[in-house]
Every structure is written in structure tokens, then in C-alpha cells.
Write a structure and sequence with these properties.
It is built from twelve helices and 15 strands. By secondary structure, it is of the alpha/beta class. The chain is globular. The chain starts with a strand and ends with a helix.
Length: 384
């Protein structure tokens, strides 16, 4: 299969979908890897590094999309990239479609089969391709929040860990998944007073053991969250519902009970955000203020550390990319059922129930949609 890797063009995105090590593995499986010129520069990977492992460098995105049978990406395709997708082509990248009806509509119209990293599952129902970026985003969330609490940045002017004789800041982490756990690890390491909220008692038990009792675990209810907000200096939103739009855990009217200059970091912003007042921001302009509360809502937090992120991403996605290239989408799904929920769009239809609900579309099972796509492809070949 010809596998294409275009340069990421979303603002402040420096990652690339494949490392030279990933190229080498794909080439070992007899696949041809097409890399857009300069695609790896943001991650300190040169074209020569890719070529040394067997990749072919193409001059621009149009050339990559025109020749490749499967496109590997990092972030969701931008409008100019959606226009270059074609029927029968596969797209494998982060999509986050539930809060993005226009993008979903564009992908359906393209006729491509679109597989989202963030909804691929392993045998235990976990999200193995989301996990590495969630780990990074969780750690960045605490770092960024600590910085934004400084007075010149508009924060309260409080040091996260305090000093002897002066109390540490209070950090509230809402959501005890991969993001929340990593955010809490860093906050604990910075000697903050940390509280983790989750709706699963079993998960809270796991976190209590993992953290060695160094933070408080709290069963998450509307009242429990509301009672802590007046004390919190930093609130990290780390709520995830597989494939779906994130629920609001802090409402606009609740900002009034918070301390002026407190900071909200919304790691769920890719899925629509878990604070009612959130909107996507960028690394160059990361914050805005609502009712005296600083909001940090960067939609691609791991993009700030692309060397770490690119390598971590390839480590996770490579086995799945190889399987898709070796067996095609349908064959790969038969071999690994965890890929099935990864297919969000196929045959012009939305094939993930949570995405369909989020964008107001009709849900069509993956197998049915792929059958429609296969029949269409065969008809087009016959006509040609």
C-alpha cells in the first residue's frame, strides 16, 4: 500500500504522524511511504532522516494526497485537506468529530474511510492511541496552569507548591482517567494540595493506591464540585466520554463563586470542552478571561512538545497503521475488533454512535457502510 504523511497545517502544530523508525517498519512490510517535504521539521526530523529509512519525499500535500491510498495524520484534517480526500482512500488520524458537524459532513462527502485514533479500543475497552497524548496533555495541563497562576499572566499570584509557612495552592482535577492521573502526578510533585474527582469508586481506589495517599480522592457529584470551586486555585478539566462530546462539569454561573484570578485548564476542549465557558485557543494565544477566571483551552497541548509527542504517538499507532496497510480496513477490523469503533466515517455515513449523536447524524453500522463503499468502488472500477 502507498501510505502518505502530509505536513500538519493546524495552527501551532509541530508533530508529524510517523517517525523514521515507523517508516522503516512500514517499508519492512513492503509498503511505500510518501512524506511531504519538511513534514518532520517541527519534530526535528529531516527529510534525509526519512529517506534513509526508505521513504520517498514529495513536494507538497497535493502530491501526497493524490498518490497515497492511506493518509496518516496527527490532527483533524483542515478544510483544504478534506477537499483532497477521495472515495476509497483511508484516513487515520485524530478526528474528534462529536463537536464538529461541518468537518463530519465534509468527511462523509469525501467518500473516504476515516479512522479516529481516539476511538480505537484495546481488548479491555481502553483507548490505546489516545493514552500517550493524554499522558502528555495531563502533564502539560499542570505545568501550564502553574504558569498561568503567576500574577503577570493574569493569575492570582500563587506558587503551586507554596513554601514553608505559606500554604500550597489547591488543585482540583475533575476526571480520574489518564489525563487526570498524570495531571495529579505533576501537581503532587510540585507539592500542591490535590483533589481528584471521578464518578467511579473503583477508579478512585486505584488512584488512591497509585498516588500513595498523597492526594484526596472525591466522588464526583454536582454538589461536591461546587463545594470545592471556591477553594480551588487551579481546576483541570479531564473528563472524557468515548467518542462523545464532553459534558459540562463547571457552568458559567459557578464562576462567580470562584476566586478571582483562578485558572481553568480544559483538556477536553478537543471534544467540545467540559467547562461551559470554554472555547478553543492556541499556543500563541492560549488564554482568555471570563468573569475574572483565566481559561486555558489549547486544543493541541501535546503539540507544544513535538519531539516527545511524535515519538510517543508513533509508538502507539504504528502496529495499527501496519495492520491497516497489510490487510485493508475491512481485513484489519476482522483481525482486530478494537479497530471497529475507530471507524467514524465510511461510505459517506457516520459509523460511530456517539459521533452520530454529537453531530445529529444517522448512525450506520461500520459493516453496512463499508459494504456500500465497497460496492461503490467496484462500480467505479467497472465503469472505468
Amino acid at each position: 500500500m502507498k501510505v502518505g504523511v502530509p505536513t500538519e497545517i493546524k495552527e501551532d502544530e509541530y508533530r508529524v504522524a510517523l517517525t523514521p523508525a515507523g517508516v522503516r517498519e512500514m517499508v519492512e512490510h513492503d509498503h511505500e511511504i510518501l512524506i511531504q517535504r519538511g513534514a518532520g521539521e517541527g519534530s526535528s526530523i529531516s527529510d534525509a532522516d526519512f529517506e534513509a529509512q526508505g521513504a520517498r519525499i514529495l513536494p507538497d500535500a497535493a502530491a501526497v494526497f493524490a498518490e497515497a491510498e492511506m493518509i496518516l495524520g496527527v490532527k483533524e484534517p483542515q478544510p483544504s485537506e478534506v477537499e483532497m480526500l477521495r472515495p476509497g482512500q483511508a484516513l487515520f488520524t485524530y478526528l474528534h468529530l462529536a463537536p464538529a458537524p461541518e468537518l463530519t459532513e465534509g468527511l462523509c462527502a469525501s467518500g473516504a474511510t476515516c479512522i479516529a485514533y481516539e476511538t480505537v479500543e484495546d481488548s479491555h475497552g481502553r483507548l490505546p492511541l489516545l493514552a500517550p497524548m493524554s499522558e502528555i496533555a495531563g502533564k502539560i495541563a499542570t505545568q501550564a496552569g502553574a504558569f498561568m497562576l503567576e500574577k503577570p499572566m493574569g493569575g492570582r499570584g500563587i506558587l503551586l507548591g507554596g513554601v514553608p509557612g505559606v500554604a500550597a495552592a489547591t488543585v482540583m482535577v475533575i476526571g480520574g482517567g489518564v489525563v487526570g492521573m498524570n495531571a495529579a502526578f505533576i501537581a503532587i510533585g510540585m507539592e500542591a494540595d490535590v483533589f481528584i474527582y471521578d464518578k467511579s469508586i473503583d477508579r478512585l481506589r486505584e488512584l488512591d493506591v497509585a498516588m500513595g495517599g498523597r492526594c484526596s480522592t472525591v466522588f464526583s457529584t454536582t454538589l461536591a464540585v461546587e463545594e470545592m470551586l471556591p477553594r480551588a486555585d487551579l481546576v483541570i478539566g479531564a473528563v472524557l466520554v468515548h467518542g462523545a462530546r464532553a459534558p459540562f462539569v463547571v457552568r458559567r454561573d459557578q464562576l462567580a463563586i470562584m476566586r478571582r484570578g483562578a485558572v481553568l485548564v480544559d483538556v477536553a476542549i478537543d471534544q467540545g470542552g467540559c467547562f461551559e465557558t470554554s472555547r478553543p485557543t492556541t499556543h500563541h494565544d492560549p488564554t482568555f478571561e471570563v468573569d475574572g477566571i483565566t481559561h486555558y483551552c489549547v486544543a493541541n497541548m501535546p503539540g507544544a512538545v513535538p519531539i516527545t509527542s511524535t515519538n510517543a504517538l508513533t509508538n502507539a499507532t504504528l502496529p495499527y497503521a501496519v495492520a491497516l496497510a497489510d490487510n485493508g480496513v475491512e481485513g484489519a477490523i476482522r483481525r482486530d475488533p478494537g479497530l471497529r469503533p475507530g471507524v467514524n466515517v465510511a461510505g459517506g455515513k457516520v459509523t460511530h454512535p456517539a459521533v452520530a449523536e454529537g453531530v445529529g447524524a444517522t448512525y450506520v453500522p461500520v459493516e453496512e457502510a463499508l459494504g456500500v463503499q465497497r460496492a461503490t468502488n467496484e462500480k467505479q472500477k467497472a465503469e472505468a
